[in-house]
Design brief:
mainly beta, two-stranded antiparallel sheet
Amino acid sequence: MSELKPCPFCGGEGCIQRHEFVGYTDTFGIVCLDCGCETRQFFTHKKTAVRAWNRRADSAPTINTKQVKYFDEDENVWKIGEVIVSE
């Protein structure tokens, strides 16, 4: 079984929880031991619970900017700002 990643919110340690319900199949979830964040869903297999906990959103795309100097006619001064440039 794969290792649990740290909590996505506080970086704390995650723990696999086994939920037992009378008359039903046991289910599993993951909870952070530090902040209490949890998967909030019961999974029928530990492996599926671990995969859900370890899932992270893709990182945001990088936006390239460059510094430019421009003249602000309203204030009658030169200013420095940033503009988005295409790759």
